[in-house]
């Protein structure tokens, strides 16, 4: 193994993926079989500056360099060779937001991340004008809001991109985006796999009274699909990525992608009729569609896979935070009783108890709204647990209701797809903290969505591993080999996973719980107004 890996590294056959998440930047080097060879990570946090959630350019580059450096040091320590040549590199990052530059490449205003809810007017007007859902966090909403606010910098804009697109541009000189990331900038035409020209014309018309120095198509990056070459690492880019100077220039880069797309790749859910659900602090489900939806729904965002297939996304702000707080309370109780309990065991025990509860949670009701919830139209939240005197109040039902409610808002969004739009879904791949206790999270999700839920062993690898697979696909694919085929045949073949099928009794119980959940939203509203 050691020797094989050494020669893979020395011959420049290893592939590098780097993803910038909201709290962690991760670099992962994989071998020819797609398995990790070395990793490095860097923790960071966004700053709230002058009312804007942002990361500075200095923080961005320090984080990228640090995660790369830690990975390169691990290569030296483990395999005794320096990292000089790499087969291909890919960058991904959190999507959306606002990064704009003047003609000299200078950032005009601090990076506005996806977390900023400051574009309500723009998002509403664009959604109406395009008859297409434009969420507040989308880059085009940020741009139009800046135009509406008559911000001084708007006339000087020469280039707009995302975080992944920015890093890629600085390393290669190429102003490009992968189609998945681009689909969170501006709506994509599914036939041409680039921006929707009709909507570009509508946008230009909308801003024409402002007499700006640019048209939209002049400032947006070119759109590429998975497998296309997106440029090579320049000498300057090599120094920027590896400050020690060991890394050689000339390495090919794949199109930079968004974290939604790399999550789909990491769970092998890029084919039509598949989906993946990420459940942790927040929860979102992504379903690859066979056709466009018949209506515009504020609860559903539309993006694409890295190959340009349409994806519907239901996103809920709240998932496991309140659940974690309750587990923390049981931990405090254990300590007060003089029992030191391992947290993994505590989670596993409490989560497993939920499987023994009544199908509908015995009449209990809870809301884990630590923050607002757009699907149910709450600007802020109050975590809440409530029961009637007739409810069957025991620990199994208590845990079950908190697991059920962590998926309640998501289910409302998913019901629009599965029931109203009759979207067909063969299975959904689960990843994230909610699925760590074997069989519990997937059982709850299967009950909520009435769809088989699989958890892969690779689900923990994350987006950095996903973008590494996209870089590998670009240089290793055979002629006419699709990304779906490449992932299924070469990356995921033989990889084990556990599938839980929905139990009709539990599905019925979840539907009963949802009636209570929907009716009880008035209680949540009263709590916000009075607490």
UniProtKB/TrEMBL annotation:
Provide the GO MF annotations for this entry. Answer: kinase activity
Highest taxon above the source species: Bacteria
Q: Which residues form the Carbohydrate kinase FGGY N-terminal domain?
A: 15-241
A Pfam family hit? FGGY_N
> Does Transcription count among this protein's keywords?
no
Task: Name its GO BP terms in alphabetical order.
Answer: carbohydrate metabolic process
- Where does the record place the Carbohydrate kinase FGGY C-terminal domain? 276-474
Q: Quote the InterPro entries the UniProt record gives.
A: ATPase_NBD, FGGY_C, FGGY_Carb_Kinase, FGGY_N
- Keywords linked to the UniProt accession: Kinase, Transferase
* Cell cycle among keywords: no
The entry sums up its family as follows:
Belongs to the FGGY kinase family.
What is the designated name of this protein?
A: ATPase
Q: Which organism is it from?
A: Halalkalibacter okhensis
């Amino acid at each position: 193994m050691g020797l094989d890996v050494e020669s893979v590294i020395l011959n420049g056959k290893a592939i590098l993926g780097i993803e910038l998440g909201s709290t962690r930047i991760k670099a992962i080097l994989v071998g020819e079989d797609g398995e990790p060879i070395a990793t490095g990570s860097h923790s960071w946090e966004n700053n709230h500056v002058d009312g804007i959630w942002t990361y500075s350019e200095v923080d961005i580059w320090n984080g990228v360099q640090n995660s790369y450096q830690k990975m390169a040091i691990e290569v030296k320590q483990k395999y005794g060779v320096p990292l000089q040549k790499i087969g291909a590199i890919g960058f991904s990052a959190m999507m959306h937001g606002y990064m704009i530059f003047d003609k000299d490449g200078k950032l005009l205003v601090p990076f506005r991340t996806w977390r900023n809810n400051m574009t309500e007017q723009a998002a509403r007007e664009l959604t109406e004008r395009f008859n297409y859902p434009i969420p507040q966090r989308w880059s085009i909403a940020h741009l139009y809001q800046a135009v509406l606010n008559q911000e001084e910098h708007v006339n000087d804009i020469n280039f707009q991109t995302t975080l992944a697109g920015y890093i890629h541009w600085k390393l290669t000189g190429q102003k490009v985006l992968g189609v998945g990331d681009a689909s969170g900038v501006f709506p994509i035409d599914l036939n041409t796999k680039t921006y929707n020209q009709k909507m570009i014309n509508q946008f230009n018309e909308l801003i024409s009274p402002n007499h700006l120095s640019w048209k939209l198509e002049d400032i947006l990056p070119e759109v590429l699909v998975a497998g296309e070459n997106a440029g090579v690492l320049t000498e300057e880019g090599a120094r920027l990525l590896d400050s020690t100077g060991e890394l050689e220039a000339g390495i090919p880069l794949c199109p930079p992608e968004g974290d939604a797309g790399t999550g789909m790749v990491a769970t092998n859910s890029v084919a039509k009729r598949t989906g993946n659900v990420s459940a942790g602090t927040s929860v979102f489900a992504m379903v690859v569609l066979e056709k466009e939806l018949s209506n515009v729904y504020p609860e559903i965002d539309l993006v694409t896979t890295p190959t340009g297939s349409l994806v519907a996304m239901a996103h809920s702000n709240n998932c496991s935070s309140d659940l974690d707080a309750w587990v923390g309370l049981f931990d405090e109780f254990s300590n007060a009783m003089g029992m030191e309990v391992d947290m993994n065991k505590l989670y596993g025990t409490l989560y497993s108890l939920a499987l023994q509860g009544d199908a509908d949670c015995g009449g209990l009701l809870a809301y884990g709204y630590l923050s607002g919830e757009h699907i149910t139209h709450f600007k802020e939240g109050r975590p809440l647990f409530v029961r009637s005197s007739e409810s069957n109040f025991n620990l199994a039902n208590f845990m079950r209701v908190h697991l059920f409610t962590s998926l309640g808002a998501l289910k409302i969004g998913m019901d629009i797809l599965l029931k109203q739009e009759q979207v067909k879904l063969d299975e959904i791949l689960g990843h994230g903290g909610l699925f760590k206790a074997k069989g519990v999270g997937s059982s709850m999700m299967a009950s909520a969505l009435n769809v088989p839920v699989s958890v892969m062993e690779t689900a923990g690898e994350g987006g950095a591993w996903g973008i590494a697979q996209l870089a590998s696909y670009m240089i290793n694919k055979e002629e006419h080999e699709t990304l779906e085929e490449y992932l299924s045949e070469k990356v995921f073949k033989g990889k084990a996973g556990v599938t839980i099928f929905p139990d009709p009794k539990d599905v019925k119980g979840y539907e009963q719980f949802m009636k209570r959940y929907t009716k009880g939203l008035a209680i949540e509203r009263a709590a916000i107004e009075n607490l």
